[in-house]
Specification:
One of its GO terms (cellular component) is membrane. The protein is mainly alpha-helical. The protein contains eight helices and no strands.
Length: about 220
C-alpha cells in the first residue's frame, strides 16, 4: 500500500511539530501506515477472514484448487483496486486531512454487510443440519428479509469498502458491478435451482419473502 504524506497543516491550528508528523505516520501496528491506511488494511483482513470462515464453517460444497485460486485472485484484484482508488483520492490533501463522510458511511456499510452475510449463512446451515428439515427450503432468520440476503450483504460490504477507500464514484461503480452480476446471473440461477428442487414449497417462500436481493428494495 503506497505511503501517503501527511496533509499540510491547517492555518487555524498552526504548523505541526516533527513529532506530531511522525505520530501521524506510525500506527499501533508498527507498519508505518497512516490511520486511514491501517483502516483499509483492517478491512482487507476482515474480508479475508470472512471468506476463510465461509470455506471452513458454512460451505457444504467442495471447492477445487482451481476454483479457490480464481476466488483468491478475484478478491486480490478488487482489494488492489480499492488501494489504487484510495491513492488517487488521497492526492487531494483535503480528502486526507480528516475522515470525510464517505469513510464513516463506508465503514458502517462494511460492518453491516460483513456481519449479515456469515450470520445468515450460519442460520441456513443450522436449519439444513437438522434432519427434521430435510427437503425443506429455508426462509427464516435473515433470509426472511430477502431470498438471497447473503448476496445483498456481500454487495453491501464490498460497496462500503469501496466508499471508504475511493469515495462515492468508485463505490457506485463497485455496487453497480455486483448488483448487475447477482441480479442477472447468481440470483436467477439460484431461483431456478430452488424452483426445480422444492416446487410448490419454493413458491410459498416467494410469497412470504417477496424481495430477492435487498430487503425493501429488490
Amino acid at each position: 500500500m503506497p505511503s501517503i504524506p501527511p496533509p499540510p497543516p491547517s492555518p487555524s491550528h498552526g504548523p505541526l511539530s516533527s513529532r506530531q508528523q511522525q505520530q501521524k505516520l506510525i500506527t499501533t501496528l508498527g507498519l508505518n501506515l497512516t490511520p486511514m491506511q491501517t483502516l483499509l488494511f483492517a478491512m482487507s483482513v476482515g474480508a479475508s477472514a470472512k471468506h476463510i470462515f465461509w470455506i471452513l464453517a458454512t460451505s457444504k460444497e467442495k471447492m477445487s484448487a482451481s476454483s479457490a485460486a480464481v476466488v483468491a485472485a478475484f478478491n486480490f484484484l478488487i482489494n488492489a483496486l480499492n488501494v489504487l482508488a484510495f491513492g488517487l483520492a488521497a492526492v487531494n490533501p483535503t480528502y486526507y486531512r480528516s475522515a470525510p463522510w464517505n469513510v464513516y458511511v463506508g465503514v458502517a456499510l462494511f460492518v453491516v454487510g460483513i456481519l449479515v452475510e456469515p450470520i445468515a449463512e450460519v442460520q441456513r446451515r443450522n436449519f439444513k443440519d437438522d434432519p427434521r428439515n430435510e427437503g425443506k427450503p429455508y426462509s427464516g432468520g435473515l433470509f426472511a428479509l430477502a431470498r438471497s440476503v447473503n448476496y445483498g450483504a456481500y454487495t453491501t460490504w464490498r460497496t462500503g469498502f469501496a466508499l471508504a477507500a475511493g469515495g462515492p464514484v468508485w463505490a457506485a461503480l463497485v455496487a453497480a458491478f455486483f448488483l448487475r452480476d447477482f441480479a442477472s446471473r447468481a440470483v436467477p440461477t439460484m431461483e431456478e435451482y430452488c424452483s426445480k428442487r422444492y416446487g410448490a414449497q419454493w413458491e410459498e417462500v416467494k410469497r412470504k419473502v417477496p424481495y430477492k436481493l435487498i430487503p425493501w428494495v429488490y
